[in-house]
Write a structure and sequence with these properties.
Helix 10 runs parallel beside helix 11 (287-299), helix 11 packs parallel to helix 12 and helix 15 (382-399) packs across helix 19. Helices cover 42% and strands 11% of the residues. Residues 580-588 have low confidence and may be disordered. The protein is α/β, with parallel strands linked by helices and 617 residues long. The chain contains 25 helices and 17 strands.
Length: 617
């Protein structure tokens, strides 16, 4: 028995070497593949049976991939598709693998498994694993030992997490497996990761960066001079179920403290790491574990930047404790400042709690940054976007900085399989439901590195003049509200304020003229514009932007013979309104609840399985 586990690309790297190799941070260690190998080892399958091929890091040519598979001739080829944007590379690698190893099983895991109905019909993948893969892969390896290449659907039906096509081409999904126990969670194994580089050991440095992710906005990290930062994962899963986020892991689990300490020691002594970035989905929700973990950070003199904390997690005393124990930089996952939008997203937080959490963090001396924001969800309107601008201003006022200085990015939501907003997008006709159409959509999102209004799929139903205005409106409202708050109560300067003003005051100086035009830059943070009433200036800017940046750009592209940018693959049939007849009160009825009530009962096994996969956990 030979098993090959392969990473695949989610995006084309922004920077590559002259020889075609990756020359940028690889974001995070491939801990999913590490977990699979460790689980197989624990159950009697030695590492000599398992080979790791890091396609994502090596960026090999088709010929090199073909040569690898022809030489190894594995019985099972596993493709790790961590994001829906991996589809393009999954299709490519699976086709090469099938030609080189016609008798091998090709298995795909990761978030893309939510689109198993497309993957299994349009690529050479034989089976998909949705959710945590340790137990399903082990059971599948045992199945192959017994059955070889034969398909016994009765036995396949007993493997949890498996999705496959039966003899009649009906899609079957055996249900999500709830994963291994906390005691079996692992940290990255850099020796295993090194083995995937096939002799190009120097590429391992791509897992580290010489500056923190939040470059220049973390005073304590900056004060250390040269910083070597690694990404870590102290926990797995999340306590929430936001409608834009893929959920294929049940609940929230923490990595054992002894495993984390051993990992921190290795990072420091072997690689010279003195700072880490927490890449977990949900920092700190197990507060007892968090206390012990940050004690380890202080013990080993490693600073941490923490992301994606929930505003409901930390009390003032908790903020003080983690600030004293090497958590230098901190951010909250908010996405919106509108209570209605937060309710539709199922964030399970309030705007009041957001402001309290920011104040608690600042009072504790934590360097907390402004949130990143998300617009374009079902139910978003100009009012919800303005509400978000107001809350952005309020958090900026607490930090003592204008929202433009160090402000968070404004992204447009991108529906991906395994989320309620994807299912909703299909329900209103914005995303195709046929296999060919869905594949085209997956290929499309594989080209998107940063979701913006120019590549937004309009699941909201708003006119494109409104869609194109949302990010501008939010920035204008944030700036106006911030000035109003400052007039009422001048912000109290803090070391964080001074640092932001020193390092980030010129944040927009590098924008090109076209970038400034595209963002209506001169209409933002403009005292003269803000002196005009909202009812007057906002419509003027909205339609000026529409004329220049939507209609004007489209005409210019047509004159050049180029393809016009579109805000939507299809025009939605309806616009989701919380007050519309039949939609109910969304403060107590979420988008997920609406879909469950309004979606007809599946008539086929394929539709039933597809729906379970699309909704996730």
């Amino acid at each position: 028995m030979k098993i090959s586990l392969c990473s695949v690309k989610a995006f084309e790297p922004l920077r590559i070497t002259a020889t075609g190799e990756r020359k940028e941070d690889a974001y995070a260690p491939k801990v999913a593949i590490v977990a699979l190998v460790k689980w197989l080892e624990k159950h009697g399958y030695p590492r000599e049976m398992i080979d790791f091929y890091d396609i994502d890091m090596l960026l090999p040519t088709d010929a090199e991939i073909d040569a690898y598979f022809r030489e190894l001739q594995p019985d099972i080829i596993g493709l790790s598709a961590i994001l829906a944007s991996c589809y393009t590379d999954v299709r490519r690698v699976a086709a090469i693998a099938r030609r080189a190893c016609p008798n091998a099983w090709i298995v795909m895991g990761g978030h893309l498994a939510a689109a198993a109905n497309v993957v299994l019909r349009k690529t050479e993948v034989d089976v998909c694993v949705a959710g945590d893969g340790e137990v399903p892969l082990l059971e599948f390896v045992r199945y192959v030992e017994r059955r070889g290449r034969d398909k016994n659907f009765e036995e396949l039906a007993r493997i949890p997490g498996l999705a496959y096509l039966d003899a009649d081409a009906e899609l079957h999904f055996n249900g999500f497996h709830f994963g291994v126990n906390e005691a079996d969670l692992v940290a990255p194994d850099y020796d295993l990761l090194l083995s995937g580089l096939k002799g190009k050991d120097y590429l391992l440095e791509n897992y580290f960066s010489e500056q923190p992710l939040f470059k220049g906005i973390d005073p304590e990290l900056n004060a250390r001079g040269k910083v070597k930062l690694a990404r870590i994962l102290p926990s797995k899963g999340c306590v929430a179920k936001c409608t834009f986020c893929q959920r294929s892991t049940k609940g929230y689990r923490t990595v054992p403290l002894d495993v984390l300490e051993k990992h921190l020691i290795e990072l420091k002594e072997r690689f010279g790491v003195n700072a880490v970035l927490s890449m977990e989905e949900n920092f700190g929700s197990n507060i007892a574990h968090t206390y012990e973990f940050v004690r380890l950070l202080k013990k080993h003199d490693i600073l941490m930047t923490a992301t994606s904390a929930r505003v409901t997690t930390f009390k003032p005393e908790d903020c003080k404790f983690i600030a004293e124990h090497n958590v230098a930089c901190f951010s909250y996952g908010l996405e919106s400042g509108s209570q209605l939008a937060l309710d539709i997203m199922e964030k399970k937080i309030t705007t009041e709690k957001i402001l309290t959490a920011y104040q608690d963090a600042v009072d504790a001396g934590l360097f907390v940054r402004l949130s990143n924001w998300l617009v374009g969800n079902p139910g978003d309107t100009e009012q919800t976007v303005m509400d978000t601008g107001k809350l952005c201003a309020a958090t900026a006022h607490i930090l003592g900085i204008h929202p433009r200085v160090g402000g968070g990015n404004i992204g447009y939501v991108m529906p991906v399989p395994g989320t309620p907003i994807y299912e909703y997008g299909q329900r209103v006709g914005a995303i195709p439901t046929d296999v060919d159409g869905e594949e085209a959509y997956l290929l499309h999102i594989g080209t998107i590195r940063q979701p913006t209004k120019s590549n937004y799929t309009n699941i909201n139903g708003a006119h494109e003049s409104e869609v194109a205005f949302w990010d501008i409106l939010m920035r204008m409202e944030a700036s106006r509200t911030y000035r109003e708050l400052c007039r009422k109560s001048p912000p109290k300067p803090t070391p964080i304020t001074e640092f932001n003003l020193k390092y980030l005051a010129d944040v927009d100086d590098n924008l090109t003229f076209n970038e400034k035009l595209y963002s209506m830059y001169w209409m933002q943070d403009n005292a003269l514009v803000e002196a005009l009433p909202r009812w007057l200036i906002y419509p003027v800017v909205k339609y000026l932007n529409y004329g220049i940046n939507v209609v004007g750009r489209r005409l210019l592209k047509q004159l050049r013979g180029q393809k016009s940018e579109r805000f939507s693959s299809r025009q939605p049939k309806t616009r989701y309104s919380p007050d519309a007849e039949g939609h109910g009160n969304l403060r107590s009825r979420s988008l997920r609840g609406y879909l469950r009530q309004e979606t007809p009962k599946p008539l086929t096994k394929t539709e039933e399985s597809r729906l379970i996969l699309l909704r996730g956990l």
